[in-house]
Write a structure and sequence with these properties.
Pmannose_isomerase-type1_CS, Jelly Rolls, about 400 residues, zinc, PMI_typeI_cat, 25 strands, 12 helices, alpha+beta, zinc ion binding, Mannose-6-phosphate isomerase
Length: about 400
């Protein structure tokens, strides 16, 4: 029978938006405990995955066995009946560390109904039938486009001469509703390269006074043009329609299924329901873009203000010493427990009655589980089975994240 604690080795992928070589926190963390992973200073390293999704699985550091295979053989001990009954034996969440050098594709993750349909129609592209709501927690200064701006701010921009063309003829830029905004996004995503470049030029020539509290757009335009060109349709949707947010380390946000987003820069912890389905329509080469109609039809307008995606920290009832807090997104697949300790401080976490993945993003320390001691240093990653208490002690400042289902 498997032990309750399994040290893991993980891997990174190499999407072109990732940070290069050792600039990538994801790569540096991955290198700490995977002896087969070597950083190439010429390559981008975008995401370290720490779950059991088959595209980039996780393995036992000691035996090399696939974590999901270990779970399949020890379901009751490691996962527990409550989570098995709810989600089955597959780990229901997927934690990652992302290192972002430039904008990710403008994207949504389809909800369950659409995911089931897309998976049935094209299982090679849409590799599962699940939804993918997710959270992101900043490890550094983190910039993102997320959700839609308040309608009044979008209306103000659509009255500019260079942007009026994207308002449907049957509507008014002064009377936007969500269905009209859906059509505005579709018109922007379907616009010709010349039309996009011309509109962006007009937006760039707008005075800061005209833009008011949206004058940050003038700083973002040259950055996005340099990354993806002035003809990329994503420029218009992101700059005109979406909230631009900046998070400081420790802050978090939530993205629902079908929620529009594009991360811009920074290092983050990300965690999502077990899925890898995505629909992209901008900030990527044209061959990588999906149907604008599919994208806009699926959009949700639940987030319509920069404050709405923000995910508040909550005191954790798992914490014994009060050194931990949680992010609790409005979904059932996981919560994220965060423990921050100064030198020589300690924390005890009450038993979690479901599977969890715990990883240190900085610092040095140790943890004790069922009388056994484990090193808990930067980059160390562990699967922890259900029903056990975890005691953590920091040698110096230690930050630990733990995604769990219950």
């Amino acid at each position: 029978m498997a032990d309750s604690v399994i040290q893991l080795k993980c891997n990174c992928n190499n999407y072109p938006w990732g940070k290069t070589g050792r600039q990538s926190l994801a790569a540096r963390l991955c290198e700490k405990t995977n002896p087969d992973f070597k950083i190439d200073e010429s390559k981008p390293y975008s995401e370290m995955w720490m779950g059991t999704y088959p595209e980039l699985p996780t393995y036992s550091l000691e035996t090399g066995e696939d974590l999901q295979q270990i779970l399949n053989k020890n379901k009751e001990k490691l996962i527990g009946k409550k989570v098995l009954d709810k989600f089955g034996a597959d780990l229901p969440f997927l934690p990652k560390v992302l290192s972002i050098a430039k904008a990710l594709p403008l994207q949504i993750h389809p909800d369950k109904e659409l995911s089931e349909k897309l998976h049935k129609e094209d299982p090679e592209k849409y590799t599962d039938p699940n939804h993918k709501p997710e959270i992101a927690v900043a490890l550094s200064r983190f910039e993102a486009f997320i959700g839609f701006k308040p309608v009044a701010e979008i209306e103000k921009l659509l009255q500019l001469d260079s942007l009026k063309q994207f308002v449907p003829a049957s509507a008014s830029a002064l009377q936007l509703d969500d269905e009209t905004l859906r059509q505005v996004c579709a018109n922007m995503l379907k616009a010709s390269e010349d039309a996009v470049a011309s509109a962006l030029k007009g937006l760039r020539s707008t005075s800061p006074e005209q833009l008011g509290n949206q004058r940050y757009i003038l700083d973002l335009i040259p950055r996005l043009e340099e990354q993806y060109g002035r003809e990329d349709n994503g420029n218009l949707v992101a700059l005109v329609c979406m909230n631009y947010v900046v998070l400081e380390p420790g802050s978090g946000l939530y993205i629902p299924a079908d929620g529009i987003h594009a991360y811009l820069s920074g290092d983050i912890v990300e965690c999502m329901a077990r899925s890898n389905n995505v629909i992209n329509t901008g900030f990527c080469p044209k061959p990588d873009r999906d149907s604008a109609d599919l994208f806009t039809k699926a959009l949700t307008f639940k987030q319509h203000d920069p404050s709405e995606p923000m995910l508040e920290k909550k005191a954790s009832d798992k914490s014994v010493n009060g050194k931990s807090f949680e992010f609790t997104p409005p979904m059932s697949e996981f919560n994220m427990l965060v423990t921050n300790l100064a030198a020589s401080e300690s924390e005890s976490i009450k038993p979690v009655f479901g599977p969890s993945v715990m990883f240190a993003t900085s610092g040095h320390g140790k943890m004790t589980v069922e009388g056994k001691s484990f090193t808990l240093d930067e980059g160390y990653i562990y699967f922890i089975g259900q029903g056990v208490r975890v005691d953590i002690t920091a040698a110096d400042g230690l930050s630990v994240y733990r995604a769990y289902a219950e």
